[in-house]
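WARN retry 2 of 3 for item q-0093 after timeout on previous attempt; input resubmitted unchanged.
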Amino acid sequence: MSTNTLPTALAEIVDDFQALSEPERLQLLLEFSRGLPELPERLTNHPELLEQVVECQSPLFLTIESERRTDGPSAYRLFFKAPPEAPTTRGFAGVLHEGLDGLTAEEILAVPDDMPELLGLTRAITPLRMRGMTAMLGRIKRKVAAANKLES
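OK item q-0093 returned
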């Protein structure tokens, strides 16, 4: 699969991963782990607003919010909560946050379900962790699709 079909920011991230050796890819994933933004206070104090992605080996919670624009379709904001001792899970959440946050429903829903495989981590990360990554993307897409349907 080509990165031409991905949103620009996500395509650049995938290109960065693909340009590295396997050990360097793991280091880049750790950098994304450290760059994952903290939850805003309105969500920190209301964990019931977050949904757990049970397929992830480590506890990961996420939610989305729609942001209306006057000049076009709504943008979707992504929020994640993952413990610091889960760098792989946090790293992939960081990739998704940086690559998808602020995009429209159409852009997010067009991301191929197997996008995590493009990062080139399938030999470095267990299949169970890869399944968690794919589930995270799937959960985001389902939530965006549902929210977009409500807005239509």
